[in-house]
Amino acid sequence: MQSVVNLTVHGIGPISHELDPGEGDFWVGVEQFEQVLDAVVGRQDVRITFDDGNSSDVEIALPRLLERGLTAEFFVPAGLLGEQGRLDSDGVRELVGAGMRVGSHGWAHRDWRKLTPEQVDQEFTDSHRLLSELTGRQVSRVAIPFGSYDRRVLGMMRRARVTCAYTSDGGRAQPGTWLQSRDSLRRDLDAAWISDVLNGAPSLPLRARRLAARAFKRVRG
To answer: What is the tally of structural domains in the chain?
Structure first.
């Protein structure tokens, strides 16, 4: 079975709200985003995902995806809907109406390794319920905030009946696996970065480091 490249988009174009520390490194320009889309057209081995529920998902990304006949999956923090610079309920419905898929990015963009019991209910139960109501479809797929997970988080996701979980581990993934690694678009991306991520083969040392990091995350906690 052919492996896939999962790309993550966080924000595009002008920044309209305060970002978390370091988040600006993953905010790209419109032309950079278009470069990526043009490189992806016709590629069956590339999936496009969006995290954080930024308003640029609908205002900038959606029309450009549709122009190229592309689809994507948008992971939304349900508790932040309607905040400054974020998607609102109508935006979520617009994505679904345009043929896009919507999943959960939790409730309040918290680190899932640091949740209290009450927050666990919000992040998994409340978020899935609200997004399922908005989309009219059962939401059971997630993107892990900050890519932060451990053995405890994996257990929480299993108990919440998560059917697929996207990480930020980098590198290609097998289409049917429960944990899906992704590569995030970065502020400094260029044509060389796009070619390397889509077509390049990681060196043996890099592959070894990635495998070791994933193994460590699965057992820590």
So the answer is: 1
